[in-house]
Design goal:
The complex is a heterodimer of chains A (469) and B (99). Chain A has helices at residues 6-14, 20-38, 46-54, 97-104, 147-154, 171-177, 211-221, 265-280, 296-311, 330-341, 344-357, 362-386, 409-414, 420-425, 454-468; strands at residues 41-43, 66-70, 108-113, 161-165, 180-183, 203-208, 251-255, 284-288, 389-393, 429-433, 444-448. Chain A is an alpha/beta fold. An 11-stranded mixed β-sheet of chain A has the order 1-3-2-4-6-5-10-11-9-7-8, with helices on both faces. In chain A, helix 7 packs antiparallel against helix 15 and helix 9 crosses helix 11 (344-357). In chain A, 62% of the residues are buried. The mean pLDDT of chain B is 88. Chain B has 3 helices and 2 strands. By secondary structure, chain B is mainly α. In chain B, a hairpin with a 2-residue loop joins strand 1 (84-85) and strand 2. Chain B starts with 8 loop residues before the first helix and ends in a 10-residue tail after the last strand. The chains are: A alpha/beta (469), B mainly alpha (99). Chains A and B meet through helix 9, helix 10, helix 11, helix 12 and helix 13 of A and helix 1 and helix 2 of B.
Chain lengths: 469, 99
């Protein structure tokens, strides 16, 4: 089991206490030892990591630091399978921009983390290559869809990891595993090389052991990219700039719609503790309202599935990926390839997405959902006229039990109610762990900020993290 | 749009080029009718005069100079192809031969 943050290992590396090669070997050892039980990784290439370690430039900000990468973010020459049979034999012919930028900052991308297939799922149970266990809550789900990234960091098998977040897929598993996860503002990080699920919602971000590490990774991966025309030209500041500064006078909104009996006692307690600590730190807690909070899940699943049904049409058995054998003609090849290559949740969402986009239903579902999305974004715009940040839960409960078959798909979708709004409105959001009683499972708390206000978001998260420790 | 609208999963699967089993068709019908019944709640929100929001940020046409650059080699582009021949993707015959 590997302990220590990026900052810690950077000190060890630059002081010569450990070499980059030894650090890679250390991580490989913990992978070999723990992964058979946790299944956080689908694959790892120790040889490639050792070759990179031998060349590591310790003068760079992340020099010599291995970072795990979710299986839907491309790494040149390595499998990028999205935990799907469809891409079982796929080897990426290029690096995602986020990965290229990690390399440029001296980091060593190491290990492909397990996930819900094509990032569709909340529990890490939709992988074609087996469930991921929650190292912090045995017998319970790690959350999803960045299940392996969160479990690897929580389980001492990675110093830090990249995940992706379309409706909470970084923040929710971070919450369930007791680690930190941030979804940056839409457009902060290039999506080039991130296998598309819902392009207007997807965003790459880090899962780390603390807030400072998240800031360090954001410093490396953010910024405009000519290969992603939706990436933002907003200047990239030093995201560590606010760390350690006090938050006196900061106005933090608490949406009254989020204080419901649907939250478990542990989540309600976490929220109360956060309010108390933030008040002690000199922040002002302001009750706000998000009148369309209830509408977000319905609108989200329509839009996300519609975009997914279009994005996943590229998996047709022609240019890459799986192709069914013994088919009769092109249509039969498409249909049998997709039937065998995709798992059940992916098919369910493709069907829903195809339906809401189909003739006669488009206005009633898709156009309506996009209008409701405007209302949700309007709620946040109004709220941020009053407050600097918004506080809320990450999920209504701590991690559910693995394979709780009593949950219908609809019930699992509804559990995304607190994480979806950030994606809907393009806002940055962070999940940090709250203190829990001995034997209790991890519970995180979420802070949301206006577009491009990551520095303020990280400042407040770091202050709260310190107050909790 | 009525709450009682039933999704014809078999038909939609055909549109989506998915050859579902009978068991999947039955299961997805049940799951998705439940989801659709839930999403009809969107009707309760008045969106008269509200512009749809297709993108989270106001991003307008992002144009760049059309200049030649490097791209994947033919070999790299074909490396993941399930079937290839003569530097091209091999696919089943799509044009009927003349008799």
């Amino acid at each position: 089991m590997l302990n220590g943050t990026i900052t810690y290992w950077r000190q060890q590396l630059t002081s010569g206490a450990i070499t980059p090669t030894e650090l890679v070997q250390e991580i490989a050892r913990s992978m070999e030892e723990r992964n058979p039980d946790i299944n956080a990784y689908l694959s790892w290439d120790t040889e490639a990591a050792l070759a990179a370690a031998a060349q590591a430039d310790l003068s760079k900000p992340l020099g010599g630091i291995p970072i795990a990468v979710k299986d839907n973010i491309a790494i040149l020459g390595q499998p990028t399978r999205c935990a799907s049979r469809m891409l079982e034999n796929f080897i990426s012919p290029y690096d995602a921009t986020a990965v290229a930028r990690l390399n440029a900052a001296g980091a060593i991308p190491f290990g492909r983390t397990n996930m819900d297939e094509f990032a569709m799922g909340s529990y890490g149970q939709n992988s074609a290559f087996g469930d991921t266990q929650n190292p912090a809550a045995p017998g319970h789900v790690p959350g999803g869809s960045s299940s392996g990234s969160a479990a690897a960091v929580a389980g001492g098998m990675a110093i830090a990891a990249l995940g992706s977040d379309t409706g909470g897929s970084i923040r929710q598993p971070a919450s369930h595993c007791g680690v930190v996860g941030i979804k940056p503002t839409y457009g902060r990080v290039s999506r080039y090389g991130l296998v598309a699920f819902a392009s207007s919602l997807d965003q790459i971000g880090p899962i780390t052991q603390n807030v400072e590490d998240a800031a360090l990774i954001l410093n490396a991966i953010c910024g405009h990219d000519s290969k992603d025309s939706t990436s933002s030209r907003e200047p990239v500041e030093d995201f560590t700039a606010g760390l350690g500064k006090d938050i006196k006078g900061l106005r933090i909104g608490l949406p009254k719609e989020y204080l419901t009996s649907g939250n478990s006692p542990a989540v309600a307690t976490a929220l109360q503790q956060s309010v108390q600590k933030l008040t002690e730190l000199g922040a002002e807690i302001v009750e706000i309202s998000l009148p369309h909070a209830e509408a977000v899940v319905a609108a989200y699943y329509i839009i996300a599935c519609a975009e997914a049904s279009s994005n996943l049409s590229r998996f047709d058995g022609i240019r890459y990926g799986y192709r069914a054998a013994g088919t009769n003609g092109l249509d039969d090849l498409y249909s049998k390839t997709r039937e065998t290559g995709f798992g059940p949740e992916v098919k369910r969402r493709i069907i829903l997405g195809t339906y809401v986009l189909s003739s006669g239903f488009y206005d009633a579902y898709y156009a309506k959902a996009q209008k409701v999305r405007s209302l949700v974004a309007g709620d946040f715009a109004a709220a941020f006229g009053q407050v600097d940040l918004i506080l809320g839960p990450v999920a209504p409960t701590s991690a559910p039990r693995l394979h709780d078959d009593s949950m219908t798909p609809l019930q699992t979708y509804l559990a995304d109610i607190y994480t979806i709004p950030a994606n809907r409105a393009g806002l940055p959001g962070i999940s940090i762990p709250c203190p829990v009683a001995e034997g209790q499972h991890p519970v995180g708390i979420q802070l949301l900020a206006p577009h491009f206000a990551e520095t303020r978001l990280l400042q407040a998260a770091a202050a709260l993290e310190k107050a909790f420790s | 749009m009525e709450a009682s609208t039933l999704i014809d999963v078999a038909y939609i699967a055909k549109l989506a080029k998915l050859e579902l089993t009978a068991e999947e068709t039955a299961r997805f019908s049940e799951d998705l009718n439940q989801v659709l019944a839930y999403v009809t709640q969107l009707e309760q929100w008045d969106t008269t005069g509200v512009e749809p929001m297709y993108h989270p940020l106001p991003v307008f046409d992002a144009l760049r100079e059309d200049t030649p650059g490097s791209s994947l080699s033919n070999e790299a582009a074909l490396a993941n192809a399930p079937a290839q021949e003569d530097g091209q993707f091999r696919v089943p015959k799509v044009v009927e031969s003349a008799h």
